[in-house]
Amino acid sequence: MSNNIMSNNPLIYGVEFQARSLCSLHAENDQDCFLIGTQSLMTSNNQVHLVKLQEETNTLCPQIYEHSSGEIWSLASSPTDKRLISTCYASIERDCEKCTALWRLPEDDGNLENVITFPSEKYGTDVKVTTFHPTNDAYMCSVIDNNIVMWDVGESGVKIVCTAVLDGKGQPRFTTGKWNPQSVNLQFVTADDCNIKAWDLRTQTKIAWSLDGVHTQIIRDFDFNPNRQYYMATCGDDGYSKFWDIRNPKQPLISRADHSHWIWSIRYNPVHDELIGTASSDGQVLITCLAGISSSAIENEDMKTKTFIEDKIVATCDQHEDSVYCVEWSSADSWLLASLSYDGRLLLNKVPKDEQLRILL
Q1: CB 308 within 8 A of CB 300
Q2: Are the C-beta atoms of 268 and 223 separated by less than 8 Å?
């Protein structure tokens, strides 16, 4: 494998519109499936593409759903229901104010079926994300301007469970947010400017912990280690990816500057958490191996087998021709990483075989 370039040519799928939102179909564990949301200026033409990998033929097969409400800025899939997704979009009907809705994918191509349009306008005009709770089907959470709104989408439509407000000088705004999968409580985590805050939604305004001023420019994304409590990663416009034990907020465990421009997306591998995918405006997608802060490092300590594995980039994908806004690992095959660039190009890359073997042996 020369220069760590991802071997085995990636599978490529092209969308005819620009696109900046991607997620794995989390409830699908048997087949590699990804969702793409388009950003067409021809506003009535936006779509959600469900792209499935057919293992036998090694080809990508799409199902295309019309999303006529407006251009999609983010999307998420339910962890338990294959047909439920949420989108945040610039509404045609509301002068391109950002709105958010819950949709059901139809059985065949066609229009998405609207389940709920969330009453978000009361809280602001810029909905960043609407995410599903990792275990409770009824709970969802939106980040809107400087507000967090937790929704109950159970039996009878939508109810507001609670809200929290980001206060501060100069009208601070959230950039993104997600549930903390490591917490058994209702803990929702947000990024604003250069800060990370964890909100205990049982007490509405209580901040459980925070990482303050941890990047020199705006934080674009963060992710939690799925297999090691207290460990998380952040990335942003300063071009750094940083890795934290939230119990020690003063100092990152590791700080890396592998990209030459803003980092938009960072994701831990859901099974082999030493592998981290990142996507950047430099047009590159990287897979980095950080074994020393992974859950396998704890196992090695327990077994007294301290094999030192160097932190390093194990694969580089440079076949995008535009800014790469998203990376997502497959929910079905943990070696498969999807990436989406703004020109609508989806690439599916595998972790190099020698790296797979090293991790498994």
Answers
A1: no
A2: yes
163 contact partners, CB below 8 Å, separation of at least 6: 123, 147, 148, 149, 150, 204
34: helix, coil or strand? strand
Q: How far apart are CA 84 and CA 76, in angstroms?
A: 9
Q: How far apart are CA 140 and CA 142, in angstroms?
A: 7
Q: Does the model's pTM come out above 0.85?
A: yes
CA dist 337 and 331 (Å) reads: 10
Q: Which two tokens stand for residue 216?
A: 């020199």
308-320 pLDDT per residue, tens = 678 999 999 999 9
Residue pair 218/237 in contact by the 8 Å Cβ criterion = yes
Nearest to 313 by CA among 339, 336, 334, 284: 284
Residue 302 sits at φ, ψ, to 5 deg, of -60, -40
SS3 319: coil
Task: Tally the residues of the chain.
Answer: 361
Question: Which DSSP category does 79 fall into?
Answer: S
Q: List C-alpha distances in Å: 287 to 3, 91, 164, 316.
A: 13, 35, 35, 7
In the structure encoding, which two tokens stand for residue 321, read together?
């021709």
Mean pLDDT of the chain: 92
- In contact, 242 and 258? CB cutoff 8 Å: no
